[in-house]
Predict the structure.
Amino acid sequence: MPMLGLGVYDMYQKQAEQAVETAIEIGYRLIDTASMYENEVEIGNGIKNSGIDRAELFITSKLNNTDHGYEEALKAFEKSLQLLGQDYVDLYLIHWPIKAGRAESWKALEKIYTEGRAKAIGVANYTLPFLNELKQYSNIQPAVNQIEFTPWLFQKETFEYCKKAGIQLQSYSPITRGIKFSDERLAPLCEKYQKTPAQIILNWNLQLGVSTIPKSVQKQRLQENFDASNFTLDIQDVLFMNTFNDGFRICDDPIIFL
Ligand SMILES: NC(=O)c1ccc[n+]([C@@H]2O[C@H](COP(=O)([O-])OP(=O)(O)OC[C@H]3O[C@@H](n4cnc5c(N)ncnc54)[C@H](OP(=O)(O)O)[C@@H]3O)[C@@H](O)[C@H]2O)c1
């Protein structure tokens, strides 16, 4: 799985198609969409228009909150494939650990995986209690856990659990949608490495071994974010950024689904 990919939440129609095409042209190979984003058709079109060989891409989609349950999840997966215009996805995730149905949904994902229609299956927003619960009834361990993870939401316990278990952590809303760019502790790092706040934050993810999926529809920012892998933060700067944690979140705390 590529460590840096394109998130496509909140992009629609021609803009979404164009963003995917531009990203692929720049070199992105991982595209992270979801049924919830209501743009699977456009993402599929962008992929086709790019002319790239499908085997070179890594496409992720996710089970929507409204589609939990065994049969429901199987049906929703087929619908996503159809909308994307794909025979398979590289990764299919449970988007949120909705209480009613999450166990049955995981069983459906295991079936999808066994049939080879998703090359890997995983979860999103599964913090520790959800991972522990999943362990009780799963036959297949999730390959990936996608969570909100930034220097300001350094979820150490989940990070360490996934590392130990061999579950690839992937960070969403990785650049805090720009909200934390003004944190004064970032400026000296930008100066030291001659990089932008987005690049410093994305590189922090990569140095920790966390895959990351920043979203942009702007060519210059797509390039800027992609270039975040072209340098290496010193370990003391990575450790310093680990101390930024103040619990800041963009999305809901999954704890509401306990
Ligand atoms: N599993 C989940 O529950 C979940 C939840 C949230 C997100 N996600 C996934 O994670 C992806 C990324 O998260 P996100 O979209 O919430 O937030 P994000 O990637 O942290 O930030 C995206 C926002 O920042 C702007 N931006 C992008 N690059 C920039 C740069 N270099 N400098 C300044 N601004 C920049 C974008 O605007 P422009 O587009 O105008 O550049 C957009 O408004 C999503 O697209 C989605 O695929 C998953």
